[in-house]
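User: Hi! I'm working on a homework problem where we have to compare a predicted structure to a textbook description. Could you give me the structure for the chain below?
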Amino acid sequence: MRLKKKRGMFMPSSAPLFNVGGKILQTIKDNGYEAFFVGGCVRDFLLQRKINDIDICTSAPPELVMTLFSRTIPTGLQHGTVTVLLEEEMFEVTTYRTESGYQDHRRPDAVRFVSDLREDLLRRDFTINAMAMDEQYNIMDYFQGQEDLSNCVIRAVGNPLQRFEEDALRILRAVRFSCQLGFDIEEQTLLAMQGTVQGLQYVSFERKVNEWMKCFRSPHVTKGLSYLQDLRVFEDIAPFSTFETGYQQLFHYPLTDLDETERWLLLFRLTPQPKPIILDFLKKSNMDKHTKQILTTEYELACDQPGLQDVNHIPHKALLELGVPAIVRLLKLNQLLELGEWDHRLGDRVKHRHKALPIHRKKDLAIDGHDVVQAINKPAGPWIQCMLEDALEKVLNRVLPNEKDALLDEIKRQLRTEKRDAHE
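Assistant: Happy to help. Predicted structure tokens:
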């Protein structure tokens, strides 16, 4: 089926990427083969969503694709995939194929290259991801993907039971698309997900966390929670089983008003698991290093200050070291858990307190370890850091001015006092 895409619906921001990709399509076609844009980029094009990358499918064998372009990477030749680099952009170009034998509920045991576009699209997960498009924006839609987009429905391609038996991760992908797009999962597709959900036990911990992270940052996360509850994945399928109680309680909170970090922290707070269990989950997950660090630091802060709700009771040092966003999140979640709502002026109030601090970064302290070593005739050791921390506290609490001489004089006085006390 070929349907002409209306030019009025074309996303101008996507034009450069499609224009470059169109050159790849044309080169392949000039050599006697078919080539189309495929999958998520076509779906997002039709939905007028932002497109970050473009996949291409082709009847050309992967070895030939590598000869047609000067810069290529053999990303997965055994599966027919070659990455083509053109004009500083990367495009995955994959030969039409069919798949069979999914012994691990994830990857095909055998891949067979074919020459028919419809056969290739038939192996894909959902109708909204099983459309192709040429460089003139003509849509190839064999499974009513456009109709399902219009009806806001997620439907498996072909036999839904077979799709999820082939790859159990598709169960979480369906939930994720529901979270991202606000779509409902079609009845037969959902029934097939329920019938194959135990296959998720064979999917790696990291892949499951990765899909759920995408759900957690999506606008319709509550819809995804509802589906996961229906699927009963909370009961005995890690990592969801770790947070079963927390997931059940999330429904009572306005998740759409919380960002991804706040949602994770709220889940951790609602989960009656020992602190080491939560930290071990973070350690094992494939979250990026920065996200892990933020969640670990702020979860530990929440464990230390579970009832703190007043901006004025935040220690100066915590405000300086953790920064405004972390403190706002702590107070916001504490208030939400205790009162069921939070003061929406928290951000401004915390910023005001932070601005009023004598210094705003630890490195703004007028002295450092080198200054202390030069001023004190004493072997270096852990005592230096203790003295610097004490000096920081005194500056933040306005006991001392942030001046080098004043701070070094105070350290000398403390050391004399300690020495005298030791001799008494």
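For your comparison, note the following. Residues 404-423 form the longest helix (20 residues). The chain has a mean pLDDT of 90. Good luck with the assignment!
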